[in-house]
């Protein structure tokens, strides 16, 4: 969850353009070469084609879980983050309790709780009028888990804005929430884009935990394939490659957004 | 020097026995004063004397520990007072400008007009352009604050406050963070404002401005008003030793 941030966005701009060997993104070259090799090996190997076609549908579930859970986590995190900087002691206490409890639990435990404790409890308490599908359980579990981390990211962003900004906005007659919305958050969010992007990619990887809720995501499809065919090598190679392709694509997307939104 | 023949109106700011404590530090320690409509009051005093705190209490950026502040007939210290509505009537200019860095100069000036005054985009922009002309930098409307000099930023900040059409303008050491060559451009705008009859409370050690524009001067020390008099009175015949000592340090 806390990998080093991937931000080298606006470092090399002033210098005159001369491409030296050090500027070449060698890691990309290596990944592309390995990818080409693996793609070749797979397309020329029947076992790999078999594994690949079996596992590929899991990508849809993985992306669905990641995007929906992250969107929900952004909302939960924003609300909890605003409560964390609130002067209201009740709001502060509730959000702090949430953050501390969730951060103290492994993501897997949170997901199992969402799937096998909370969801059945709600179902029974409401006489089956409110029920959650496995997919919803997975998305909500991940969102609640990541919401706590994102709350702290939002809080740090809000607190990094000079207090003169809030004073200026308030002295013009804005309410606290108007000042937050129009003055503080637009600045804070630009500052926290790198850690937000980081957690997005971490979320994609942690979405593999929903396999434990029997959701047919990328990992679960791989596990099914292996248990049916006993071809662990081909099965997990395909799973790893697909995850790698997804994370690399998403990290380019994140970098694109960061560049578009950066303050200059 | 501007000839002073303006008619002062009724009391627009009334402060009674104001105290403001930060922990054990008594920043403002029993201040009673008033400001008349159209009056320009300059507050001076040594560092830590409570000038800024006093000023910031007027628009409730600091909540008074005790005492009463009545602005334009409304007791802002009473329970349930609409502080936001009150603040919209009081413009304040800060030492460090506090422009919104993610907005252009124009957007800085239109934001509160739209959000607080509920003006349309078009009207807010028209007023913003007028205020930018008034502070002398109409060509900087689309510039972001980090592309402006300190003096220009402060003038945008003044325009931002004026666009709300406030009844009172507060200035908290508006030129202290400026390079010397930019001080005049800001003071000129303030002089013009004083000339137009704006009620102003200014914390500043710019004695040139005080002599030219102040109707009254207040010398504050250790949270209490030591002297409350005309500029002539303060500069030519200060009554207290502390005032004399302070003036001897800042006038050279």
Secondary structure blueprint with pairings:
The complex is a heterodimer of chains A (264) and B (252).
Chain A: H1 26-43, H2 46-55, H3 58-84, H4 89-103, H5 107-125, H6 134-159, H7 163-171, H8 176-206, H9 218-229, H10 232-261
Chain B: E1 11-22, E2 25-36, E3 40-44, H1 51-58, E4 66-71, E5 74-75, H2 83-88, E6 90-93, H3 105-115, H4 121-134, H5 150-162, E7 168-172, H6 180-195, E8 199-203, H7 207-213, E9 216-221, E10 224-229, H8 231-236, H9 241-250
Parallel strand pairs in B: 3-8, 3-9, 6-7, 7-8
Antiparallel strand pairs in B: 1-2, 1-4, 4-5, 9-10
Helix pairs in contact in B: 3-4, 3-5, 4-5, 5-6
Distance between the termini of chain B: 20 Å
Radius of gyration of chain B: 18 Å
Strand order, biggest sheet of chain B? 6-7-8-3-9-10
| Proportion of residues in β-strands of chain A | under 5%
> Any idea what the shape of chain B is?
globular
Strand tally of chain A, please? 0
Tell me roughly what share of residues is in helical segments of chain A.
over 70%
Silhouette of chain A: flat
What would you call the quaternary organization?
A: heterodimer
The largest interface is: A-B, 19 and 26 residues
Task: Name the structural class of chain A.
Answer: mainly alpha
Q: Would you list the SSEs of chain B in sequence order as H and E?
A: EEEHEEHEHHHEHEHEEHH
Question: How much helicity do the residues of chain B have?
Answer: 25-40%
Rg of chain A, nearest Å: 22 Å
- Rounded mean pLDDT of chain A is 88
Structural class of chain B: alpha/beta
Characterization of the model:
The complex is a heterodimer of chains A (264) and B (252). Chain A is mostly helical and 264 residues long. Chain A has 10 helices and no strands. In chain A, α3 (58-84) crosses α6 and α6 packs across α8 (176-206). Chain A is flat. Mean pLDDT of chain A is 88; it is low at 1-13. Chain B has a 6-stranded mixed β-sheet with strand order 6-7-8-3-9-10, sandwiched between helices. In chain B, strands 2-1-4-5 form a 4-stranded antiparallel β-sheet, with helices on one face. By secondary structure, chain B is of the alpha/beta class. The longest helix of chain B has 16 residues, at 180-195. Residues 1-5 of chain B have low confidence and may be disordered. Chain B is globular and about 55 Å long. In chain B, α4 (121-134) crosses α5 (150-162). In chain B, 36% of the residues lie in helices and 25% in strands. The A-B interface holds A 162, 164-165, 167-175, 178, 182-183, 186-187, 190, 263 and B 59, 61, 84-85, 87-92, 94, 96, 98-102, 111-112, 115-117, 157, 160-161, 164.
């Amino acid at each position: 969850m806390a990998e080093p941030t991937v931000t080298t966005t606006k470092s090399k701009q002033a210098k005159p353009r001369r491409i030296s060997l050090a500027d070449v993104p060698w890691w990309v070259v290596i990944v592309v070469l390995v990818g080409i090799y693996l793609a070749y090996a797979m397309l020329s190997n029947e076992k790999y084609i078999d594994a690949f076609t079996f596992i590929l549908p899991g990508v849809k579930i993985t992306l669905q879980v990641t995007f929906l859970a992250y969107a929900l986590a952004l909302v939960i995190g924003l609300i909890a983050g605003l409560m964390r900087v609130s002067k209201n002691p009740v709001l502060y206490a509730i959000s702090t309790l949430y953050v501390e409890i969730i951060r103290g639990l492994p993501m897997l435990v949170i997901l199992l709780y969402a799937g096998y404790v909370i969801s059945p409890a709600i179902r029974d308490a409401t006489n089956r009028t409110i029920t959650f599908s496995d997919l919803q359980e997975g998305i909500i579990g991940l969102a609640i888990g990541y919401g706590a981390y994102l709350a702290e990211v939002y809080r740090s962003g809000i607190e990094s804005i000079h207090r003169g900004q809030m004073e200026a906005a308030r002295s013009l007659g804005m309410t606290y929430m108007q000042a937050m919305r129009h003055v503080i958050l637009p600045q804070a969010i630009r500052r926290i884009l790198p850690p937000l992007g980081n957690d997005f990619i971490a979320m994609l990887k942690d979405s593999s935990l929903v396999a434990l809720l029997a959701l047919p995501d990328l990992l679960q499809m791989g596990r099914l394939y292996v248990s049916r065919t006993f071809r662990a090598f081909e099965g997990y190679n395909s799973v790893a490659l697909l995850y790698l392709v997804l994370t690399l694509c998403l990290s380019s997307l994140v970098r694109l957004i960061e560049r578009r939104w950066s303050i200059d | 020097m501007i000839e002073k023949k303006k008619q002062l109106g009724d009391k627009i700011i009334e402060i009674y026995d104001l105290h403001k404590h930060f922990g054990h530090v008594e920043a403002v320690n029993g201040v009673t004063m008033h400001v008349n409509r159209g009056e320009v009051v300059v507050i001076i005093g040594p560092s830590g004397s409570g000038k800024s705190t006093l000023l910031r209490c007027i628009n409730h950026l600091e909540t008074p520990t005790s005492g009463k502040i009545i602005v334009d007939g409304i007791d802002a210290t009473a329970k349930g007072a609409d502080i936001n509505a009150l603040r919209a009537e009081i413009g304040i200019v800060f030492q460090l400008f506090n422009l919104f860095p993610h907005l252009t100069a124009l957007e800085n000036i239109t934001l509160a007009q739209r959000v607080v005054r509920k003006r349309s985009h078009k009207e807010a922009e028209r007023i913003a352009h007028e205020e930018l002309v008034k502070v002398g930098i109409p060509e900087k409307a689309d510039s972001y604050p980090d592309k402006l000099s300190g003096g220009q930023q402060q003038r945008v900040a003044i325009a931002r406050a004026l666009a709300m059409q406030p009844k009172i303008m507060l200035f908290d050491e508006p030129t202290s963070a400026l390079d010397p060559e930019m001080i005049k451009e800001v003071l000129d705008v303030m002089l013009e404002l004083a000339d137009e009859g704006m009620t102003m409370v200014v914390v500043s050690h710019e004695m040139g401005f005080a002599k030219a524009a102040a109707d009254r001067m207040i010398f504050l020390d250790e949270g209490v008003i030591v002297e409350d008099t005309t500029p002539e009175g303060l500069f030519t015949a200060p009554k207290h030793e502390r005032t004399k000592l302070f003036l001897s340090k800042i006038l050279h």
